[in-house]
C-alpha cells in the first residue's frame, strides 16, 4: 500500500510471502562430496568412507514472510531520499541431516556411505534498513548513493543434527554495504 502524504512525500508498506519449491535435485540427488581414506583417525575402518548428500521426497518448500515499511521524500526538484525498513521470517530452510551409514558395493563391499539427507530443520529472521539518495546535480550528471544494514539470525531447529554452522557468516551475522 502507498500513501501520498503530500505531493512530494509518500509512505508505503508491504507484506509479502514467497515459497521456494524443491528442485528435482533436492528430491532425487546423490552427490558424493568427500572420500575419507581407510585407516585414518576420521575413518578407522578398512574401507573408504564416502560422505554423500542425498535428496529426499520428504523435503518441503521453504517459506518466507516479509514485512516492509518505507518513506520517500522529493526534497527538491533534483533530490529524492528514501528510507526502508524490513523484517523477513524464514521457515523450513534446508538442512543436511545425517542418516545411518551403510556399506555399498556389489558383489563385495567397496565403501561405507555416510549419508547427509535434505531436511527442513532451519528457520529464523533477518531485519535491517536501507537508505537511498538520488541527486541530479545537472541534467547530464547524477549522483546516487545507498547504505544497507542487514542483521541475520538464522538457526537450526532443536531437533536438527545438521553438522554445519547455523548462520552463513557466523552467529548474529551483520552485513553492511554502501555505494
SSE diagram, text form:
Layout: E1 2-6, E2 9-20, H1 24-28, E3 30-36, E4 49-54, E5 62-76, E6 79-98, E7 102-104, E8 111-138, E9 141-156, E10 174-178
Parallel strand pairs: 4-8
Antiparallel strand pairs: 1-2, 2-5, 3-4, 5-6, 6-8, 7-8, 8-9, 9-10
Helix content: under 10%
Oligomer status: single chain
Distance linking N and C termini: 28 Å
- Could you say which overall geometry the principal axes of the C-alpha atoms support? elongated
The count of β-strands is 10
Instruction: Give the count of helical stretches.
Output: 1
Mean pLDDT: 90
Major beta-sheet overview: 10 strands, mixed
**Radius of gyration, taken over Cα atoms and rounded to an integer in Å:** 24 Å
Order of helices and strands: EEHEEEEEEEE
Which residues form runs of ≥5 with pLDDT under 50?
Answer: none
Portion of residues in beta strands equals over 45%
Summarize the structure.
The chain has one helix and ten strands; from the N terminus they run E-E-H-E-E-E-E-E-E-E-E.
Amino acid at each position: 500500500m502507498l500513501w501520498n502524504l503530500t505531493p512530494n512525500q509518500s509512505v508505503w508498506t508491504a507484506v509479502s510471502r514467497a515459497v521456494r519449491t524443491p528442485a528435482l535435485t533436492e528430491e532425487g540427488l546423490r552427490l558424493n562430496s568427500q572420500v575419507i581414506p581407510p585407516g585414518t583417525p576420521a575413518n578407522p575402518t578398512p574401507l573408504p568412507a564416502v560422505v554423500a548428500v542425498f535428496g529426499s521426497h520428504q523435503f518441503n518448500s521453504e517459506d518466507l514472510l516479509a514485512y516492509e515499511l518505507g518513506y520517500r521524500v522529493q526534497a527538491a526538484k533534483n533530490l529524492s531520499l528514501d528510507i526502508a525498513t524490513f523484517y523477513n521470517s524464514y521457515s523450513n530452510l534446508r538442512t543436511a541431516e545425517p542418516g545411518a551409514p551403510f556399506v555399498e558395493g556389489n558383489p563385495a563391499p567397496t565403501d561405507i556411505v555416510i549419508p547427509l539427507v535434505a531436511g527442513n530443520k532451519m528457520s529464523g529472521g533477518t531485519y535491517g534498513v536501507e537508505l537511498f539518495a538520488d541527486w541530479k546535480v545537472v541534467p547530464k550528471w547524477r549522483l546516487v548513493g545507498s547504505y544497507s544494514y542487514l542483521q541475520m539470525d538464522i538457526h537450526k531447529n532443536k531437533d536438527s543434527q545438521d553438522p554445519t554452522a547455523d548462520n552463513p557468516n557466523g552467529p548474529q551475522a551483520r552485513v553492511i554495504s554502501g555505494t
